[in-house]
Amino acid sequence: MIDNALLPGWATLALIGVACGGLGWLLLGVLAQTGARIGADKRGFFAVFQLVFAALALGVLVLGWMAFALAELGLYSLPTLALIWLALTAVCAFLLKRQQPDSPPQPVTPVPSRFLPARFEPIFLLLWFLVALWLFFRPHEFIIGGADAGVYVNLAASIAENGRILIHDPTFEQLPPTLYPALLRQQTVNPIADAYLFPAFYVASQAGPTIMPQFYHLHPVWQAVAFGLGGVYAALLLTGLWSLLGSLAIYLTVRQIAGWETAALALAGLSLNAVQQWFARYPTTEPLTQFLLWTGLWSLGMWLGAGQSERPPRRAWALLAGLALGQLFLVRIDFYFIWLILGLLFLWQLGSGQLRRDAAWFYLPLGLLTAHSFLHGLTQSRPYFYEIFGYGISLLGRFWLIPATAVLFTSLVLFIFARYRNRLAQLGRYRRHVLAAGVIIVLLLGVYGWFIRPVYGAPSILNDWYSTNQIPRPDHENLRRLGWYLSPLGVWLGIGGMCLLIWRANRRSAVMIGVGLLFSLLYLWRIQTNPHHIYTMRRYVPVTLPFFIVAAAALLAWLAGWRKPISLILAGSLALVWLGGLGWLARGFVTQVDYPGLIDQMTAFSQQFAPDAVLIFNDPAPIGQGDFIGTPLKFLYGLDVFTLRDPSALDTAVFTRQIDQWQADGRTVYWLAVPDGPDWPLAARPLQAIAPYTITTTALEGRYDRRPTAVIPTTWPGTIWQVEP
Questions:
Q1: Contact, 459 vs 475, CB < 8 A?
Q2: 20 and which of 59, 135, 643, 692 could share a cystine (Cβ 3.0–4.6 Å)?
Q3: What confidence tens digit (pLDDT) does each residue in 345-371 have?
Q4: Strands 669-673 and 687-700
Q5: Sign of the C-alpha dihedral, residues 61, 539, 260, 257?
Q6: Strand 201-203 with 614-617, pairing
Q7: Which range among 111-120, 264-273, 622-631, 654-663 shows the weakest confidence by mean pLDDT?
Q8: Using CA atoms, how far apart are residues 445 and 376, in angstroms rounded to an integer?
């Protein structure tokens, strides 16, 4: 399976970009009721750049949703997706041909330059692009199982091969349920699935042998597209593309509210950051989430700030925002919180009379995708859906202050809306009071999170709940640990910048500020993941990390905007120290790649087995070789893999008959013995030694108490035995 690539990895990304950009360009033309003259006029660099990015984003959103729906229905394949793309392209081209072009699209005028001429902008973006290619497109060869990153890659291969998310594996379906206790890891906490074949590949034995992969699946569906075109390397490179586009979306968001110089400073700080670099190479959902979120925030600001005569029209920006923010719910289960901000936006628009007809272009796709995500969770990822929501409900029951505060706040908002619905605009006279209160609260939270909470911890009602005897509880240090990658100066520039953004909030920036504050507060309060750095920092990639950097850039630009010698010197000095600190804290991360050479080693290792072989690992560890290297052997190399997880639960008679059946079907059965694993359980069935094996690579150390720096070797040794007839 891994050698079925049609194109090199870079060519795959280029093809995806051209296909999505072309479709999006035509769709924008249809929405604008023009198109024949798009690009025909002499306009500035940024106007064209903005339209190209909007077109690419719109194409990604439409084509990704189509691929996602096909995979849910079990109908996904590259030819099918290509036919849908061709049909959509043909329809759009036909509609454009029938239309008479009027005035060409003119994007919303952004904030003008304050310090440097606009002609420097394309030079800066070109230089940044070249550096980003080097920083972002050197992926970790993370194909092993047992961790989220490898789960996504292996699931992508399964989707590309079988055309569906739910896994119906003939070999597993023929396995007698009496062998489940021995060959599956039993689950006692999940309300739906009582076992898993591999970590995150769940089985509800009472409901049949269907394997239900964990998580929401838009990310692995996109990886499946790349995998089908360019193999595993293309699937790994795709994360770099999302990080590149996510960085540009942040640039565009900042540019429309603060000018290109501020956006350039934010983009430079973001790209220098170790966490952004790391997760651009790490195949999890965070870069795609970042791209969707900030594309949605940018286009939402364009919609809210656009005039009725703008081209593309308001409905184009509304649609782009609704699709981008709505697809967040198909990528991550924790982004439903964003409805707190979007709900306030809806109430404000409704009460102030600003809810125009084109609002349907935003709220309808947003609502439809929200409903789609719930349906997806119930049908495609039930163990994950019920576990997360059940966990959340139990937490709300334990920490009653959270729902009580939410209910009180919601009641207050609804009361104000009901009482003053027709006079919301008059509440503007209290704007400064509300903004001042927001500034004070942010400053107090910053002081608490940096100085008080690390020393004294949280109040008893908010005690940390994520802990075992082996894993420390670090939530009280979350803000300081963020400083491991932002620097203390970066943290406090970010806090000061947040205060500035709040004080200067407007219709284009309000939603961005609200989302940034909400998710920063949420995850700085509770990281809600294994506190294993740098892995745990993934929670901050979509919102918190870029929000701190954007706020810091805004503060520095504001200082420079005074145009006084002292302010220019102060802003310049702080900017140099800030950027230098980000670069210094990224040392080691810039060049380090996890698991180098692993794909070639695994390919050579898989070739030692007969085609259509059955492999049985003797590794009962909670997560062992049967998970680490067994998962890619199954999904990337097409071998059937099991692990003897509980020898005491093995029914040897049934196990013997199953091996007899496999061999009668012409399949070779192998026993993979790892050091300190249990002995071969069938003494009457001889084994033939084939060869010892050792898979060796390197990865960044896992630390809980400091920023990781060391690169350590990782080795998986064992011996291959063939089961004799």
A1: no
A2: 59
A3: 998 888 777 788 889 999 999 999 999
A4: unpaired
A5: positive
A6: unpaired
A7: 111-120
A8: 37
